[in-house]
Please model this.
Amino acid sequence: MAFWRWRSPAQRLLLLSALAAPAGAALAEIGITRILVFVVPASLLTTLGLDWALAWLEQLASRTQRRFFTQPAFGNLVSVVTLGLLVSFNIYMLREALVNGPTWYQDYGLYGMQYGAKQVYQETVIPALEQDPNAYYVVTPSWANGAEQFVGFFVPPELRPRLMLGQVYNLLDRQPLPDLNTYYIVSPEEFDKLATDPKFKRIIVRSVIPYPDGQIGFYILNIEFADNLAEIMAAEDAELRKPVESDLLWLGQQVHIVHSRLGDPLIQPMLDGDPDSLIKGEQANPIEFEFFFEKPIPTNQLEMTTGSMSNFQVTVQIYPLGSETPIEYQETFSGLPNDPTIVLPFVNGPSESDHIRLTVRDYGQDETAQVHLREVNFK
Model:
C-alpha cells in the first residue's frame, strides 16, 4: 500500500525509514542490536496495512445489504475481535519468550548470548562473600564483553575488595600463593586447561553454574598449587623464549624466518598486505624476527603497521651483502593513533640485503606481553 501511494510524503517517509534502518548492519555486520530499529517502520507499515484491511472488510460486509453489517456495532465488533487477537498473541509470545527463550539460542558464551551475570554475581559470589568474611573470588572475564561492568552493577562497594576479574594464571607470581579461601569461577574451556596443567596439584570442584539448556556454564573451584611450581614456571618460560622457524613465499621468493613464538602459529598475516589481519607474540616482549632471503631485496626503508601501543621501540639490523656486521637503525615512537603505520628510513644503506633482523619492544607492557603487528614490509 505504501508503494502504491508513494506520491504521499508520509508514505515515502515510511519507505525511506525502512530502507535506512539496516544502515548500521550494512556498515559492520548483521546483528540484532544493529537491525532492531527496523521494528519502528515495520510496525507503522503493519498498522497502516491492518487499518486498510479492516476498512476493506467493513466495506465488503456492507455490500451484503444486511442490516447488521451496516450498523456501527459491526465496526466495533471487528475492532474488539482484532484487539483480542493481538493481545492474545502478545501474551502468548511473552510467555514463550520467558519460558522457552533461554534455549532458543544455545551459544551462551562470548560470541553468543553472554549468559551468566546474574547467576555468577547475584546468586553465587555475593551470598558467598557475605557468609564467609575470609572468602576471596576470582571471576573469569572471558565469557562477556565489558565484564568489569557487572561488578559495579551487582556487587556492593564493601565486597569489591574481595573480588577480582581474572584467572588463576594472574596469581601465580603472588607470594604467598592463594590458599583454599580463594575461589575461582571459570568457563568449561578454562577448566579443561587447568585440569591438565602440571602447575596445579589438585583442582577441587565446589559447585557448578548450569546454562539454561542444562550444560555446565561455569565451575567454582579451589586450587592447590604444585610443590615445584617455581621450577615448572621457569622451564615453561625458557621454552617460550626459544625461537621457532617458518618458511614461506614472500616478496616473490622463498624466505626463511627465525622468530619469537606467536599466539597463532601462522606468521603469514603479518606479510599478506592486509592491515586488517595481524599476528601476536606469545608472551614475547620484545618480539623478534630474523629474515633470510634467497635473493637480495631493496632496503631503503621499513614500513610497518602495528597494533595499538602508546610507547614502543623499533630496531632493524641490516646485514650488507657478504658481511656479518649489521648496520643498526633504531627509533622510539609514542603518542601515535591506534594501529599506526610507521616508516623507518635506512639513510646509511645498504641498498640491498639478504639478511635482516627486526625487533619491536612495547614499553607499555612487561616481558610477557603479546605484541601485535599487522604488516611488515621492506622497500
Q: What stands out?
A: The chain has three domains: 9-103, 117-234, 241-378. The radius of gyration is 32 Å.
